[in-house]
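Entry 14. Ran structure prediction on the chain below.
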Amino acid sequence: MKNIFLTITTLLFCSSFCFAQTKADLKPCGTPPFKTQWMIDYEANPTTFPRCGTTLYVPLTIHLVGSDTGLGYFSELTLLDALCTLNADFVDSEIQFFIEGDINYIDNTTWYNHSNVIEGAEMMFANNVENTINTYFVNDPAGNCGYNLPYAGVAMAKGCSDPDSHTWAHEIGHNLSIQHPFLGWEGGVSYDGSVVHSYTNPAPTTVTYDYTLFQDVQYLDTLIIDTAFVELVDGSNCLPAADRYCDSPPDYLSYRWDCNDDNESTVVQTDPNGETFRSDGTLFMSYSFDHCQNRFTEGQSLGMQANLMTEKADYLYNQTPLLPVSDVPVLLLPENEELVQFDEVMISWDAVPNATHYLLQVSRVASFDFLAAEHITTETSVLEMSLNNDKEYFWRVRAFNSHSFCSPVSSAITFTTGELIATENLANIEGLSIYPALLHSGQELYVEVEADTEASIQLNIVSISGQVLRSENRVLKIGQNTLRVNTNQLSAGMYFVGIERQGKRSYQKVIIQD
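Output, structure tokens:
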């Protein structure tokens, strides 16, 4: 995974240049209606398709898109929260998602703010990983909160991907064959919105919709229009009409709408037979506000499972999830309110059971609204981070693995940076080597130095604050000398180990872990 370090200056610039589009700025979904042959075959006779009876694990490839200069990436912590929400949204459907491989970071301003799905398709064709659901987090996906291209992948707006949003579930529902319950109404009664409809009047028996951009082969100079039956309240035409699922009730609302206390639309609609109804706001595939939504229907869940087990069976190559991560990392260094060398900051924490990755965040503010550094690592430490001098910082860590993202982030602790190491202590002595640079307490440290005459030297261990913790007199013989240094009494932290000889000093950094 790419390591991300962002300075405060960068982030202040990014707050204007990379301002995230919000839900209020964007349309709910840019996935126009479409009916694949698989959908038609399934909905004609769903009982002939396989049923799993156990949870299916589906791989995601995550692409974080920024500007040409690497600004504006979707927050990695928010990504983990969004993944947690996504799996919660699909738990009743017995489908769960995991991260396949490393997160892919893409620096491309055109893709970061793309104006149409053709540019989005170019982005996907250039970066997709086969047999996974590829999701691209950008600033503006063609003016939408998200969209799914059935032949390519999912694009998501950062501003519509917070932990309280269900847009990702909506778009992956599309990816797994589920359509809007209002299929055909995306452009109103007519595909281009040219016919005004009053919901108090009976709806027409059919509506038309634009299918141009969702052909497997693009014909950019050809407009392709299809017709959909309007679903009736009595359910008599539920199979050929709208999304073709009989347990998702009629819905003609193709714009973002709020729900009442019963999670139904405030707008009353009228079907072609004159029957009135309100749309069901609980469905992830509707355009109701996020706080209304909480489910896929049973029919939709079975349809997504069948799609995975037949058309997308290649996705199911790994059905052995990693064990869950539940513990919070114990933060080790720097200790709370510790003073540390500003350009030699070492940050470390204890390993967490079942965790394979850790997300570190460093911020100048306790809210972590602005980050000085954000870093994903497979290690339990980040070494030699350089920060601004004479500043207070807050830091915290979250543990996760490819299947488990929901463990809490640790509480934050603080440290202050300063300039603690005198540069005159770092003069070189030729032929000096100190290793290993990273070791555990109690492990022997080796100091190798070459001498052309016998000589007495002083071997010192110095804390990062400049305090001499140990000083020993040693004698060098002519030739190569290997001196062993015991570290039993040294706690975890960063130290300078070196020698003084004939008026010269030379020190090298070593880091001791628990």
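Residues 1-18, 422-427 have pLDDT under 50 and may be disordered. Will compare against last week's run tomorrow.
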